[in-house]
Amino acid sequence: EREREREREMTSGVEDGKNRSVGTDHNHQQPPPPFQGVSSYPPPPQQQPPATAYPQPAQPHVPGYAVVDVRHSTEHHRLPCCGIGIGWLLFILGFFFGAIPWYIGFFLFLFSRNPRERPGYIACAIGAVIATIFIVIGALRGSRVWS
């Protein structure tokens, strides 16, 4: 007799007072909660505000000290010699005046503190080294030391 009751309960979809029918009643059921992820997985990163332009460095703040923004306090003036700088002018003139301006640019490079002039001075230093190598080879070849 119990088995028959059990079969009736299973066929009707009711067991232990619970309705297990497939039919849905949307008015009385709540939607399932959203998927929260695996508990062992790290949480998603917090959203950051969108970047407005180039990345801006954080402003240093030290209580009790005055902080000067270096980016705006240093003014970049135009380089001399039509804006190319003394180093590049000496490099160009070295082709016309036999490498003497390159040696001048090399010595200016040794004592220069302006980072905007340094690339021209470095070009002069490289030109001076190459010119010295050619001068030494030419002098030795003309003196018949190697022949």
Search tags:
single chain; 147 residues; mainly alpha; 3% strand; elongated
Based on CA inertia axes, which overall geometry fits?
elongated
The total of helices stands at 5
Strand order of the largest sheet: 1-2
> Averaging pLDDT over every residue, what do you get?
76
Low-confidence parts, pLDDT < 50 over ≥5 residues?
none
Largest sheet: 2 strands, antiparallel
What multimeric state do the chains show? single chain
Strand content: under 5%
Tell me the number of strands. Answer: 2
Order of helices and strands: HEEHHHH
- Distance between the terminal alpha carbons, to the nearest Å? 125 Å
Describe this structure in words.
The chain is mostly helical. It has helices spanning 2-12, 70-73, 86-96, 100-111, 118-142, and strands spanning 14-15, 18-19. It has a domain at 83-145. 43% of the residues lie in helices and 3% in strands. Strand 1 and strand 2 form a beta hairpin. The longest helix is centred in the last third of the chain and has 25 residues, at 118-142. The termini are far apart. 12% of the residues are buried.
Secondary structure elements and pairings:
Elements: H1 2-12, E1 14-15, E2 18-19, H2 70-73, H3 86-96, H4 100-111, H5 118-142
Antiparallel strand pairs: 1-2
Helix pairs in contact: 3-4, 3-5, 4-5
How would you sum up this structure in a few lines?
This protein is an all-alpha fold and 147 residues long.
